[in-house]
From TrEMBL:
The keyword Cell division does not apply. GO terms for molecular function: asparaginyl-tRNA synthase (glutamine-hydrolyzing) activity; ATP binding; glutaminyl-tRNA synthase (glutamine-hydrolyzing) activity; transferase activity. Pfam families: GatC. This is Aspartyl/glutamyl-tRNA(Asn/Gln) amidotransferase subunit C. Its EC number is 6.3.5.-. It comes from Albidovulum denitrificans. Belongs to the GatC family. The lineage of its organism: Bacteria, Pseudomonadati, Pseudomonadota, Alphaproteobacteria, Rhodobacterales. It catalyses: L-aspartyl-tRNA(Asn) + L-glutamine + ATP + H2O = L-asparaginyl-tRNA(Asn) + L-glutamate + ADP + phosphate + 2 H(+); L-glutamyl-tRNA(Gln) + L-glutamine + ATP + H2O = L-glutaminyl-tRNA(Gln) + L-glutamate + ADP + phosphate + H(+). Heterotrimer of A, B and C subunits.
Amino acid sequence: MSIDISTARKVAHLARIAVKEEDLPALAGELSAVLAFMEQLNEVDVEGVEPMTSVTPMRLKRRKDVVTDGNIQKQILSNAPDAREGFFAVPKVVE
């Protein structure tokens, strides 16, 4: 598939990229090369190939999904300019 100059102009506009009029033929050529490479990838036979997330088979480390407060309330509140009863104290904004 070949990209013409008007299509390259439209793609640049949609991507919000400022392209000078004299640079549009080069952009059209580069976009055509990308599409040609994608067509070349479509020719590869991937029948029977399982999808993978890594080149080495390994399981991700997992931990129990447990909700905690971190047990560092005093350390966190020590940075607050004003803390009362275990919470951040802020001035009243709404009357």
